[in-house]
proline dehydrogenase
Amino acid sequence: MLRTAILAAAGHPTVERLVTTASVAQNLVARYVAGDQVEDAVRVTRDLIADGLTVTLDRLGEDTTDEAAAAATTAGYTGLLEALAAAGVAPPAEVSVKLSAVGQRLDPKLATENARKICQAAAAIGTTVTLDMEDHTTTDLTLDTLTALRADYPQTGAVLQAYLRRTETDCRDLAVAGSRVRLCKGAYAEPESVGFETALDVDRSYVRCLNVLMAGDGYPMLATHDPRLIAIGEERARWYDRTPDSFEFQMLHGVRPDEQRRLAREGYTVRIYLPFGPDWYPYLMRRLAERPAYVALFARSLVSS
Ligand code: FAD
């Protein structure tokens, strides 16, 4: 409930002004985000790879409302890929793209064409793109774009959200050879008509979806920090004889870093989702919604400032 309230409040301009000017926000942003510039992203990527992890980079920004901004985001991604290749870190680093950042709300065809340019730039340096998943109104459009891109770039990754009732079926459709699927719980506020309401139901759905993906022929990417789900992922890897190059764990930069390194030491592939750029507000609010303890911290700091 608190999570839904935080996500709803996030859209209010007064809340945005309060949060973006609060000094406590800067500390949290520093925890979750690599920095404002491409150079920051490359530096942190290099450090994570030196620690035995791998990386998917998110150039922060979403809900682009004009064509020029969508083109600028696309160019930002192709520039990022060039910088990663020049630094010798991509591959293994790849990028994660929100279709709303490259124009999906303006015109889904435009977003697909912009995403295609990013896939082309990624393929040229031997790496991949994963399409982030946003709220449920975009799921079909995003999966349509995925299908179009995979015709030319079959290694393009999808994201499925266990909190949606439809996701087990989507997992069955995508658990096929060559397909890369990130399974996460889901970070948006969704109505009961499409999403599970309780944390327990979301966790149960996650396990059903994980079973489908791990038993299937694709490359599962298990994105969670939840200790029970990670343990189930490790167990299923043994059941299904999954070698470390046939699936991976994924976690967010700044969340459970010790666990990230433990899994890497155990020999698993662990990919860190690394955001960078100045447009951090919506990303930070989704992280706050997952961690209500930080909201109390925020409230105290706003009252005392
Ligand atoms: P939770 O039950 O939320 O958390 C389990 C434990 O992890 C918590 O008890 C806590 O110890 C720790 N934890 C979790 N979140 C935080 C936090 N913010 N700060 C500090 N500790 C925390 N969602 C989408 O909707 N679309 C996407 O494309 C998407 N991509 C993702 C990519 C990656 C690599 C990851 C890891 C997540 C992504 N998410 C995405 C977010 C995801 O849907 C969840 O909102 C988020 O991962 C929290 O769920 P959880 O599985 O970690 O479980």
